[in-house]
């Protein structure tokens, strides 16, 4: 993890910065048999760069944030494929969010999760993470709800190790994630963190077509090669 302030041109460039940091961590901890999972949609362009650098297979982790009714960008929890739900009970209590509002949010986001499952995975085989080191990649972390949900789902699915990789996040949230992940690699942790997008010059919404194109162009070969790597440009 790094407190060095920095910005990124776009998600792809952030992935090229993050990838060698992840490679060093994985080599130091003897991690192999890798599977890189990008949290759809924003994490996929970054994950594609990471997977290429690590020479590891790329796939998706489908997670949907459960937004607070009054402020949809603020996460009160998250859901994953297979029905996993993570809730921020303290936030829910402090804002007086009702059980009905939570059920409505879960139902709404489950519909979008199912749509994305069909859009991205309809022609792909089942995702198998059992016995593998899973590298979970997103374009950044704010509250941590979606990444926690992803890590718990991957752990339940049998991953032997879970390493989170992101370009930006608050230091406190990175430390909190260590309860659910074995390691966290973060390129920059701004002291004045306000939102993930603050460190990106281009932070456009990633489209379904972009996700499909990145998956189609990714390697389908398993394993990894941590010893001999190209040097990623900053």
Q: What is the straight-line distance between the termini?
A: 16 Å
Biggest β-sheet description: 5 strands, parallel
Number of helices: 7
Order of helices and strands: HEHEEEEHHEHEHEH
Number of strands: 8
Strand content: 15-25%
Assign a percent range to the helix content: 25-40%
Average pLDDT for all residues: 89
Q: What features would you highlight for this structure?
A:
three-stranded antiparallel beta sheet, alpha/beta, five-stranded parallel beta sheet, 38% helix, 234 residues, single chain, 18% strand
Description:
There is one protein chain. This protein has 234 residues and is an alpha/beta fold. The protein contains seven helices and eight strands; from the N terminus they run H-E-H-E-E-E-E-H-H-E-H-E-H-E-H. A five-stranded parallel sheet has the order 2-1-6-7-8, with helices on both faces. Strand 3 and strand 4 form a beta hairpin. It is globular.
Quick structural gist:
The protein has helices at residues 11-28, 43-54, 89-95, 99-121, 145-156, 171-177, 208-217, and strands at 34-39, 58-61, 63-67, 75-80, 85-87, 133-137, 161-168, 183-188. It has 234 residues and is an alpha/beta fold.
């Amino acid at each position: 993890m790094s407190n060095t302030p920095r910005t990124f041109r776009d998600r792809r460039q952030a992935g090229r910065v993050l990838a060698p940091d992840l490679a060093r961590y994985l080599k130091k901890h003897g991690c192999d048999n890798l599977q890189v999972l990008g949290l759809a949609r924003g994490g996929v362009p970054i994950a594609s760069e990471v997977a290429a650098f690590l020479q590891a297979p790329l796939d998706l982790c489908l997670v949907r944030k459960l937004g607070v009714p009054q402020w949809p960008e603020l996460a009160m929890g998250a859901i994953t494929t297979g029905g996993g739900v993570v809730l921020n009970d303290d936030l829910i209590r402090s804002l007086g969010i009702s059980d009905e509002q939570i059920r409505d949010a879960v139902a709404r986001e489950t519909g979008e999760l199912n749509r994305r499952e069909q859009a991205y995975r309809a022609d792909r085989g089942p995702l198998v993470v059992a016995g593998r080191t899973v590298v979970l990649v997103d374009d950044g972390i704010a509250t941590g709800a979606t990444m926690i949900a992803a890590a718990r789902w991957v752990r339940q699915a049998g991953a032997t190790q879970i390493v989170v990789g992101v370009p930006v996040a608050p230091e406190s949230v990175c430390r909190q994630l260590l309860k659910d992940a074995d390691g966290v690699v973060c390129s920059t942790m701004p002291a004045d963190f306000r939102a993930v997008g603050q460190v990106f010059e281009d932070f456009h919404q990633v489209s379904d077509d972009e996700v499909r194109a990145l998956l189609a162009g990714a390697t389908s070969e398993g394993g990894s090669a941590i010893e001999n790597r190209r040097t990623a440009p900053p």
